[in-house]
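seq as requested:
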Amino acid sequence: MFMEMLSTYKRTFIPLEVFEKAVSSNMTYEQFAQEIQRLEEQGILVPVKSAGNNGRMPSLSYKYKIQRTKLHQKTHKQIEKLQIKCHRELSLDNYYSLPPSAWEEDLPYIEKINQYIMQHDWPQEEVPAPERSLALTGDEKWIQEKNGKRVLERLQIWERMKIVPVHDPLSFAIHPQVLQNKHQFHLVVENKTTYDGLLGALTDTPFSTLIYGQGYKIIKSMEHFTRQIPLPNVEHTIYYFGDLDWEGIQIWHLLMNKIQVIPAIPFYQACLQKQAMPIKTKQKINEEALQDFLQYFSEKDQQQIDTILHNHLYLAQEVLSSAQLKQIWSENTWSHPSPKSFKKTLESE
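struct tokens:
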């Protein structure tokens, strides 16, 4: 019963009281002592004689040394035995450094995955996660809802399984008259109110799409961009407009880690003309995200944004009326600013 605890215990020596605190109140001392003595007999626990013993019958040492080679010996033998039977390109090496419980939990799936590879070899085409999950284990929810991705990563075959994550698709409106252009512009807005306010002005702009970000959902749904907007041989420029607060900047920054997304400066500058309000909820401060975000702004705007955020204030997108939003979008000239620190670009496949 103590094997799991010993597997995750970080220190070499373990006091008896650690075991005592881990047992249930209805366990007798005799039962407790039998469990400890069994671990002694297996060579997993070695009494530290200098620590003394508790003087009870049967007697137990006040401190033990954990012999980790013995602790994991049985599991390692199982790993070695299965590795011989596995597909030559399926590696179980990561399990040697993981607790035995991880091996025991993953083993049924490892066997199923190995059987699949043996029969079908490696997948050649990408398929959605539920489809691949069903083929590998007979459970369509295993990869995304039952830690299946973690197992595939431990086996170092996540990429080779050619899995397309299933996320909410992009929500967007389209401007068909500009879809033939070699340079496509797109605007992502964080909130629905702003999306609705801008929608009527889309055809008055050079933008191909107006994308509803839905807060943090855009981080995953943006992965569908090239599938939902399959425009070959064009260059894409994506602008982002969110709330001027720590959360809004964090969303932009997370998205920026995937693709190049430019803050829509004219909208933010218009917000800066409004009265900032106190932040109503506690937000996580990310100074790195803020500094990356500020690189796109003038020195004056940088100072104002920095002051607003560090004084626990914010400017919501909603401070701009629908009329103001439409005017800003249709009357400004949109180009492609690109600070040195950002290198990723998004191009149609």
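The CA atoms of residues 239 and 262 lie 5 Å apart.
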